[in-house]
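Project standup — Tuesday

K.O.: blocked on the structure for the chain from last sprint. Re-posting the sequence here as requested.
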Amino acid sequence: MTPTPILDLAVAADLSREDIDVTAVLDHLVQDAAATAPTSIGYPGAVDLDHTAVMTRLGSRLWNNIGDPADRGGVAHTRVLEQAVIAWVAELLAMPADDRWGYVTTGGTEGNLSALLAAYRRWPTARIFYSEAAHYSIPKIVGMLGAYQAVVRAHPDGEMDYDHLAELIRRRRRWPAIVVATAGTTMTEAVDDTSRIRAILAEHGMVGHLHVDAALSGIPLALDGKLRLDDAGGIGSIAISGHKFLGVPTPCGVVLIRDSVRNPAKQPIAYTNSDDTTVTGSRCGLAAALLWHAIATHGREGHRWRVTEARRVAAYAVEKIRAAGWRAWRYPHAFTVVLPTPPEPVRAKWLLATDGPVSHLICMPGITKGQIDALAADLTGAVRAPIPRPRSRR
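H.V.: unblocked you, prediction finished:
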């Protein structure tokens, strides 16, 4: 039998060609993604939700949520669904109904940008404080804003060093402070303590804004009742990802900002008959519909069950990896399991996020114990490097 020739995707997709086999290119992408899915456990995207119903019904046309999410004009948009998503997430976070605004974003980065832009417009002389374990979008956004920054040390387990924050705040107490806390750091899923941050700001009489980048852990922690945007919490804004825990098959997210923080001036755009209040202007209405579908078909209790099951798999992963002769740990709330970086043969097979001597897998909803067993088998007997031990401060 003649073997099937291996497709060179870059060559096959070259648009300068006259004989492009569109079907072959698309099939290759799907087959390649399917082949690597069982070992792709290093990055946070839930794989247990079925979004086919939305893609089948809405995926064949443009849904453009241009303008403010509260606008009702125009056609072929899903702003009503977007408003429902914003309301559900805001209620989950106990955000006051009379002081909230938000929209569906392209992802956590746009959410962070939208929130920090609003805060910086309110306090244009502010210094922006963020942890060295913060998402890479934060320093990028600070640079885009042209703001002064102060980078706070993080402990080896990823949580912010509050003593260092206090020191940096004390040196800069003549200016307002915008502090970025993280609820689910990239490598360890650490959660910065916003109550301690608020106490430091109060101790130094600081005015300003507290933003939470909760792209990874926002929904699970809110379902636990451990992340709240009520008046007592003092949090001014939050960014949450939609393609992580909710598993939406397109990058998206939700940003919530206290309406009292935003510049109330609207910029009406005549030809769109809408107010320009978002970062991107045109926004993906399909993403809003997918988020709405994920929430509507499972509700709070369904998603709480998903959180519980994912954490059980993460706890199982720690046990199995340790039984294979490796050190591993996780926060009790976390889907993320941290371990020493495996040797190249293991990393060539398994897509694990790696930062120097430390790697992680993320047991998002849909990751199975069978996948964990297979990884543990590959780790058994493999040469391992030391892993920094997290400091016990709890």
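K.O.: great, moving the ticket to review. DSSP finds 13 helices and twelve strands in the chain. The chain has a mean pLDDT of 94.
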